[in-house]
Amino acid sequence: MSRSLKKGPYVNERLLNKIKNLKPDDKTVIKTWDRACTITPEMVGFTIGVHNGRLHTPVSITEESVGHKLGEFAPTRKFVSHGGKMAKDQSKK
After folding, report:
1. Beta carbons within 8 Å of 11's beta carbon, 6+ residues apart
2. Where in the chain are the domains?
């Protein structure tokens, strides 16, 4: 379910302050645990380390990702391929 239009998008103020204090060409990774934070235009060009439950996944913010949530770009589950004899034969080819 999406957030109410009356409330507006959720943006973590502490994360926004950290971004405002950095220079535009700074390549440091800003760590955050806030996966529900919406990406704003001020974040474009920076790299944010989004926590996926185990480690911080670096996410470089582009103009196409504005409006999405940070958690969408840091998957929490690792896909392990489906097993079976047929999958082993295909992987050898």
Report:
1. 37, 38, 40
2. 13-92
- Where does residue 74 rank: exposed (0-12), middle (13-18), buried (19+ CB within 10 A)? buried
* Alpha carbon distance 47, 31 (integer Å): 9
- Give the closest residue to 74 by CA, choosing from 37, 19, 21: 37
Tens digits of per-residue pLDDT, 34-87? 999 999 999 999 999 999 999 999 999 999 999 999 999 999 998 887 878 888
| Core vs surface per residue 11-34: b (16+ CB within 10 A) or e | eeeebeebbeeeeeeeeeebebeb
How confident is the model at residue 70, as a pLDDT? 96
Domain 13-92 belongs in CATH node 3.30.860.10: yes
61-65 long-range contacts, CB within 8 A, separation 24+ = 65/39
Map tokens 């001020």 to a residue.
Answer: 42
